[in-house]
Here is the input.
Amino acid sequence: MQWLQDPNQSNGGYLNNAGHEATRLYRNKKKEYLKAEIYELETNSKIKNIRDLYWGISDLKKGYQPRTNYSQEREV
Here is the structure.
């Protein structure tokens, strides 16, 4: 938040670098996810597991949906 409040040239650079790192992280996660899905589909095809094959194909068509890995507790 300090980077956003203080409009220095160096603070803008830090903010841009953080954005680039986040983009790179999600791009790599997407590649890993797609490789794993394709490998699983190939395996299901080879062992003639048709139900899981078609389920995986329909899941793959929906696309990659990134999720965060944090747990958030709600106070009641």
Observations:
- The two ends are 28 Å apart (CA to CA).
- The mean pLDDT is 79.
- The longest helix spans residues 9-46.
